[in-house]
Amino acid sequence: MDADVTESGGTPADPDDSAAGGDETPDGSPHAERGEKPAPEIASENAAQDASERASQDTPASAPGSAPGGETRSGPRNGPGDDSSNGSPPAGSGRGPALDTTVRRKRHWLRWTALGASFVVLVAAGTGWWLYKKLDGNIRTDTSAAAELKAYEKERPASVVHDAENILLIGSDSRAGDNRKYGRDDGGSQRSDTTILLHLAANRKSATAMSIPRDLMANIPACHKPDKTSSKPQFAQFNWAFEFGGTACTIRTVEKMTGVRIDHYMVVDFNGFKDMVDAVNGVEICLKEPINDTAAHLKLPSGRQKLDGEQALGYVRVRKSIGNGSDTERMDRQQQFLGALVNKVQSNGVLLNPTRLYPVLDAATKALTTDPGLDTLKDLYELVRGMRNVPTDKVQFLTVPRQPYAANRNRDELVQPAADRLFKQLRDDKPLAVVPADQLNGDDGKNNGDGERSEHSQDEDGNSRSDKGPTDGESGAAGAPAPSPTPTYSGNNAATDLCKQ
User: Which residue stretches belong to region Disordered (predicted)?
Assistant: First the structure.
């Protein structure tokens, strides 16, 4: 017989609960559940007390299904033969088939959730791998330059400081392909429009970018031409080296001039530069005067403004319509713009935000042609990771000390010994400082001729201090030799706000 749950004596059953839970006993007596019968021999004066005691025994306050006030609600039955004495849940406890169904449903959903999560992880991993391969495939490798440099290995300078890196950045002025609209294409010939030697300190606490003027007179070695012939060694305009023998010839010319071993190189074309500027959503500059230059496709008002890629390209290329029209002023603008670009990338957290970093990487990798040592995304990432903690005021830009060439005022020549001192600082991974030209030359603004001065000393931690201590040969504190003066050159750093100058 099923164990039906009854209500306590004298308390009416809840209709809804009765319908959901089991049937009442026919006589509504609490004795029927235990198989007992009322004893007729009990005296009438004790009947009320006995009934009350039996009711309290049948409906304890802690029994499952009991309600406040002694009301016992009916619940689902566990089925025939189910007895609470054998360890099974008592009737009305909410366990049994309903619990099993709930558990099965939870396990079912857990399995589907785990399957869905695994699918998402696989898709994410697959997407990440696809993006990596896409970016990696964007990079072009210049194997011919690497082979050319290997052939002349014996005449190349050796590296001096371990872990310091020197990277030659070359901006090509080729008018071939998509660059045709920027000028006449002379049969695909090209010269280096911009050349920058980027020195990364071994401790990665500073980065120095030294521009080499395109019109600087230099000793260009014999180089293999694209047509398999060879050029003769000659003293000529620096950017001819790129036209004679491409990247390898330019690298050998820079190494011959500076004595600095070039570890890696990158060539960037016009369109690649534009895309990188657009990828960071433009770069802000300030103009003292408006620009209207049809050759550079540039028309801008004066004041603060944000340049997109096309405008930025015109700004760094424009020459004759701004200032005195010299290549020197154009290099200054290029350095200032690159500093603003570096500041934009770091201040906006691009390097730490994957959604913002990807467009920059996509544009940069499409724009680059590199040596085999930098032709993978992993190699470039390691390079960028080493630079991302360099303070913006330690990302410095300057131009090699130069002056008008005596034989042709439209060309430049190195100023010595200032140029050799600068090259030695880079070669030996020693610190240097940059200040705006008006500060370097004094309040009168006149150029002192060499573009260099030494009025700061550098301590062991790389901190600059006034050169008012012991002079060369004297001793400092505790008999230690006085720090050597830090050469200071005309230039700027990435932290400079061009609109506050």
Answer: 1-100, 426-501
Domains of the chain, residue spans: 1-79, 104-138, 143-433+486-500
Q: What are phi and psi of 291, to 5 degrees?
A: -125, 135
Q: Which of 325, 334, 314, 464 is nearest to 399 (CA)?
A: 334
CATH number of this structure's domain 143-433+486-500: 3.40.630.190
- DSSP string computed for 395-419: EEEEE--EEEETTEEEEEEE-TTHH
Spatial CA neighbour of 197 closest among 216, 224, 223: 216
Q: How far apart (Å, rounded) are the C-alpha atoms in residues 493 and 79? A: 85
For β-strands 291-293 and 298-300, DSSP reports them as: antiparallel
Report whether 299 contacts 292 (CB < 8 A). Answer: yes
- Dist. CA 179–CA 373, nearest whole Å: 27
Q: Which of 436, 425, 430 is nearest to 398 (CA)?
A: 436
Label residues 50-63 b or e (16+ Cβ within 10 Å = b). ebeebbeebbeeee
Quick one: how far is CA 71 from the chain centroid?
Answer: 68
